[in-house]
Structures are given as structure tokens and as C-alpha cells.
Specification:
acyltransferase, GNAT_dom, Aminopeptidase, transferase, alpha+beta
Length: 321
């Protein structure tokens, strides 16, 4: 096959391009991860938080688009060395060179942008594993994806009071009075296990947490947050996102407890209480999916207590540029 990149790398994605991108990814994920929710078109057209994105499409002259790739270039201080690749090729057109062509374009762009590392995620045991290994990418992290049946979840910890702690719940953007405390709590995520990945660390402030909520709102996703307050300090929080158009499965986003408040079972308390709210306020939801680093023993234990079960695994690879 003589695939070629269509046009120059673009940061602006038209509705037509988004439709093509969505079709390729739906075909790719439908083959490799049947039953897994497909990203929405808005996830390409809405700019990601504190980063830029370049997009490529590969096709034979006059032929259909065989593969697509997007490269996220992080701009936030502490992460501006990093780029993240998402690459998909239609199953029936694989092994024809489209993937290699797209990878080469992304690597060249990441180097031109002065990035030190490029990471990408693939389904464990799938074709992406062999593709990455054959092209010199290094496996740096394994994520376990878990599913929680909301009807069967063990929420008894929600009934156990945590003296000195109060709960606050909101939908969408954090209330102004909690924004600074929420940003400080967000910074607790910087010590999450990342294996051998050169991920870096970012500093959250009130403006950044508001911007994150706006990105999700622009995608028409629903962001739910439950926080544990200790006086004026936010000791921990958990976030759930219900993607636009999704009726069955919610996605677990961050759960974090700040170091000074660890050891009191706050993470389990928050997650169990959130499940209770989901049952009442979103009765159509059947399950929650989360991903946890294989070496994050504490959070894996919390999830097991709630009733999460193994679903699949993802391998994170890194290209040292």
C-alpha cells in the first residue's frame, strides 16, 4: 500500500474530519475491544485542557482514510516535556504501512516541539502491543480497568461517620468558595504511581479546576464531584463523569486524599457515598469503569472492597525522544 498523509498536521478539526476520525476509531475499538464505549466526536473537536493537539489522517490517493493519529502536546508547567499519541488503523487495512507512517509523523512533530517523551496507551494483549514493541517503544506502566456493578456494590462504608469531616457535593464547576481548596486537593494526585513513565507533575489552581470543568461541559459531559472537608481544608475528593449520550456506564475520574488526611478511610467513604448518590440521582446507570495502576495497591484494595471486578488491562508505552 502507498499510504500518504492527507494535508499538513492540523490543530483545527472540521466536522467532516471529526466524522472520519470517529469512524476509524469506532472500527478499531469495535474490533479490538468489542463492547467498549467509543469516544465521542466532541473529544476531538473540543480542545483538551492546557494542551494543544495535532491530527493526521493516512489514506491511499483517492482511497478511504485508513488510519488516524492525534498528538496531544501538554503546555502546563511541569508537563511541557510530554506528548501523548492516540493512533488507530482500520482492522482490514492494518499491516499496510499506515500505522508506521502516522507514528513517524507524530514522532517528528514531537521532536520539533522539543518534547522529551511521547506516551501512548494500547489494549494489553492486542495488536498495539506488538506494534509498539517492534518500533522501539518501551512499556512503562500497566493499568487495570475494573467494572463496578452499581446494583451489587458494597456501600456500607457510606454509613460509617468520619468524625471531623463533612461532605460537599456539586455538579459541574466547583463552587467559588471551594475552588482554592479543591485545587490544593487536586495536587495530591501528583504522587500517584506512574511506573517508569516520564509523566511529570502539574500544579493546579482555582482557574485550572474551573477550566477542566468547562472542557467537560463543552463536550456535554456531566461531572459529579464529592469532597470531604476538614474545616476549610479539602481532605479528599472523588469524581465521576457521565459522557454525553451515555446511559449505561459512568467513568471514574480522580479519587485522591491529601497526605495529611490519609489513613482514615476517606477514599472508601467518598467512593461508597458517591455510589449511593448515583443509584438515586442516575438510576439508569448500571456500572462504573475505573482504571488503576497495577502498583497502586491501596486504591486497588479500596476498589475491591466496593465490589469492582477485573475487566481488561491497558499497557502504557513511552518513546524516549
Amino acid at each position: 500500500m502507498q499510504y500518504k498523509i492527507q494535508g499538513t498536521p492540523s490543530a483545527e478539526v472540521s466536522a467532516e474530519q471529526a466524522e472520519t476520525w470517529h469512524g476509524v476509531i469506532a472500527a478499531s475499538l469495535g474490533h479490538d475491544l468489542p463492547g467498549q464505549p467509543v469516544p465521542t466526536r466532541a473529544q476531538l473537536t473540543v480542545p483538551p485542557l492546557h494542551s494543544r493537539r495535532l491530527v493526521w489522517m493516512a489514506a491511499e490517493p483517492g482511497g478511504p482514510v485508513a488510519g488516524v493519529a492525534s498528538l496531544r502536546l501538554f503546555d502546563a508547567p511541569g508537563m511541557d516535556h510530554l506528548s501523548e499519541l492516540d493512533l488507530h488503523v482500520r482492522p482490514e487495512l492494518r499491516r499496510g504501512g499506515a500505522g508506521s507512517l502516522l507514528l513517524a509523523a507524530a514522532v517528528a512533530a514531537a521532536r520539533a516541539e522539543g518534547r522529551r517523551a511521547m506516551i501512548t496507551a494500547v489494549a494489553a494483549g492486542g495488536p498495539g502491543d506488538a506494534f509498539c514493541a517492534a518500533r522501539g517503544l518501551r512499556r512503562v506502566l500497566t493499568l487495570r480497568h475494573l467494572l463496578l456493578d452499581l446494583a451489587q456494590a458494597d456501600c456500607r462504608e457510606a454509613d460509617t461517620a468520619r468524625p471531623g469531616y463533612d461532605l460537599a457535593f456539586w455538579t459541574g464547576t466547583v463552587p467559588d468558595g471551594l475552588a482554592d481548596a479543591f485545587a490544593e486537593a487536586k495536587n495530591a494526585m501528583n504522587d500517584m504511581p506512574t511506573g517508569e513513565m516520564d509523566y511529570g507533575a502539574r500544579r493546579w489552581d482555582a482557574a485550572a479546576v474551573r477550566e477542566m470543568a468547562k472542557v467537560l461541559a463543552d463536550r456535554r459531559d456531566t461531572l459529579l464531584t464529592l469532597a470531604a472537608l476538614h474545616g476549610e481544608t479539602m481532605a479528599g475528593y472523588t469524581e465521576i463523569v457521565i459522557r454525553s449520550g451515555e446511559r449505561r456506564r459512568a467513568a471514574q475520574y480522580d479519587t485522591a486524599v491529601v497526605p495529611a488526611h490519609r489513613g482514615h478511610g476517606l477514599g472508601l467513604w467518598l467512593k461508597a457515598t458517591m455510589v449511593r448518590r448515583l443509584r438515586v440521582e442516575h438510576p439508569d446507570l448500571a456500572e462504573v469503569e475505573t482504571d488503576t495502576a497495577e502498583d497502586n495497591v491501596h486504591m486497588l484494595a479500596v476498589n475491591e472492597r466496593l465490589g469492582y471486578r477485573a475487566h481488561r488491562s491497558t499497557h502504557e508505552y513511552q518513546f524516549d525522544l
